[in-house]
Design goal:
single chain; 108 residues; 2 domains; two-stranded parallel ribbon; 44% helix
Length: 108
């Protein structure tokens, strides 16, 4: 669901910028869920995935059009965790640097 929501936001931003005559290349979306990446990249409807609402399959369309590219990132190396979880100091500092965030001197 998160991957699908992210794709919807990316599609909206691409549409907005397209109206302003600014074309973007495919947006890279990283996920730590290999199952969701597989489902989004392959049009096969498995019996165990029929419960998923059709709106969450929209991501497959975006992948096929080349609007987004999906990549796997190990959960322990995912810098998005900085924005969603309480982290130990070491991971906080590591992910902060990866995201290009800076704080005033004297803080963590």
């Amino acid at each position: 669901m998160a991957l699908s929501n992210c794709t919807c936001q990316v599609t909206w931003i691409q549409s907005l910028l397209g109206e302003l005559s600014y074309r973007l290349k495919a947006i890279l979306i990283c996920s730590h869920n290999q199952g969701s990446i597989f489902m989004a990249s392959n049009p096969v409807m498995e019996p165990h995935s029929k419960h998923i609402n059709i709106c969450y399959h929209r991501i497959h369309e975006s992948v096929m059009k080349g609007n987004v590219e999906l990549f796997f990132i190990d959960g322990a190396e995912n810098p998005a965790d900085l924005l969603t979880k309480n982290l130990p100091c070491e991971k906080f500092v590591k992910f902060r640097a990866q995201l290009g965030l800076q704080f005033p001197s004297g803080s963590i």
